[in-house]
Amino acid sequence: MTGTLYLCATPIGNLEDVTRRVGRILAEADLICAEDTRQSAKLLDYLGIGRRRLIGYHQHNEATRTPRVIEELLAGKTVAVISDAGTPGISDPGEALVRAAIDQGIPVVPVPGPSAVVAALCASGLPTTRFTFCGFLPRHGKDRRALLQELAHRPDTLIFYEAPHRLVESLRDLLTELGDRRAVIAREISKVYEEFRRGTISQLMESLVEGAPLGEIVLLVAGAPPGSGQERAEMGFDPTELMEALLEQGLGRRVAALIVARFSGMGRNEAYQLGLDKGKD
Ligand code: SAM
């Protein structure tokens, strides 16, 4: 008899969100594979479970650890996988182990619980019936824009994980490639500074003029309205277009110029001159 591989979802901030079932499986498992053993030790302490069976399983040792874990499973051991937060395998290690276990006929059992993507979506106010989760947006502008162009025509709500220091650039590319759609910045879900910032992309950009928010972020964008997208998908980032979009939203020229300057890298005065025939001071 082989053992079973359990994929245990853990809290994304608030430890109270851990389920009883996860607690029981972690207590009973022969081996716990954790992305970061120090991080997971806090959860085990909270649950009153010893750290003895904890081993590191992360993106840097996934290739070498997977065969060892499979051996344990084939020998009949029960293995639980946890990541630093949320559901293993969702922008976190786990996928390779799951595939290897399936190949060996080892039972793979999900133990559901928190995941930032679902938590953010359900409270976003954006349509939830159809959504496309894209994980982290590519770091490089060219790759990011190429992905957004590919997604521009989808009617589904689009969901991305994003780092705070890349938020400004990502919003700029979203505005250029998708147009000024409804969007939500879901931040620090289940933690003290939880915040859902809702608006159009340009309004969210305006809210960031003073600086990008800190913490963990899920970025959600409404899907393409019927029959839209093609024109924008063919355009590159254009400061004049951004200025006009902001003025159309009713922003004063000075504030709009501040935003355009920040997002384009051009000077404030130069930005002020853009779209001079539109908007008010
Ligand atoms: N496996 C996790 C899950 O199921 O949500 C995701 C892991 S991924 C490495 C980490 C990213 O998830 C963060 O950079 C952030 O984009 C998002 N995230 C995790 N916790 C969050 C939270 N409490 N609030 C908002 N976003 C969060």
| Helix/strand order | EHEHEHEHEHEHEHEEHEHHHH
| Share of residues in strands | 15-25%
The helix content, as a percent range, equals 25-40%
Q: Count up the helices.
A: 12
How many extended strands?
A: 10
Question: What can you see in these coordinates?
Answer:
The chain has 281 residues and is α/β, with parallel strands linked by helices. The chain has 12 helices and 10 strands. The protein has helices at 20-28, 37-47, 62-74, 95-103, 116-124, 141-151, 167-178, 201-207, 230-233, 239-248, 253-264, 268-272, and strands spanning 5-8, 31-34, 54-56, 79-82, 108-111, 131-136, 157-162, 182-187, 195-200, 217-221. The strands form 2 sheets. It has a 5-stranded parallel sheet, with helices on both faces. The protein has a 5-stranded mixed sheet with strand order 6-7-10-8-9. A hairpin with a 7-residue loop joins strand 8 and strand 9 (195-200). Helix 7 (167-178) packs antiparallel against helix 8 (201-207). The chain starts with a strand and ends in a 9-residue tail after the last helix. The model is unreliable at 229-235 (pLDDT under 50). It binds S-adenosylmethionine. S-adenosylmethionine (SAM) is lined by residues 12-13, 83, 85-87, 90-92, 115-117, 161-162, 186-191, 216-218.
